[in-house]
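dumping this here before i forget
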Amino acid sequence: MSFYDKNDIIEMAIKDENRGYTFYNEASKKVDINTSRKKLFTQLRDEELKHEETFRNLRNRIDLIQLTDEINWSEEEDYIGSMVNERLFDSPDTVIQLVKDAKNTDELIDLAIDFEKETLYYFKSISKYITERKAKATLKEIINEEITHIKRLKEFPR
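structure:
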């Protein structure tokens, strides 16, 4: 019996997006942040909320999500578990503390890039396990949006 199932994978994605929302929300509240960075963090916060809602909708139609039968889940448990447990943003409290400890807004942008990369890696990793067409297309769309987040953060003037 596998420790991770469809619900676990979707719940991890929801939590991941919620941590992203928390990060960008806290970052946008920093006193020393300029208007353009505040706008960027606010936009990214709102997009994380959209992604979270998308995963909630997937969870609600979980019967439509098929995970490939070719996977030996007992072998994948350690891999998925380590990806989740070794995250930079492993909890909302950690996220809030990272924002508070950031020395400046450049450091916030660097943290955001790291978070987006971790998120992208996770979503790409789970995408190979999802075979249902609509769920796979939805996940691909979110992956593309995460790539866009990274580009926007990297291209933002420092």
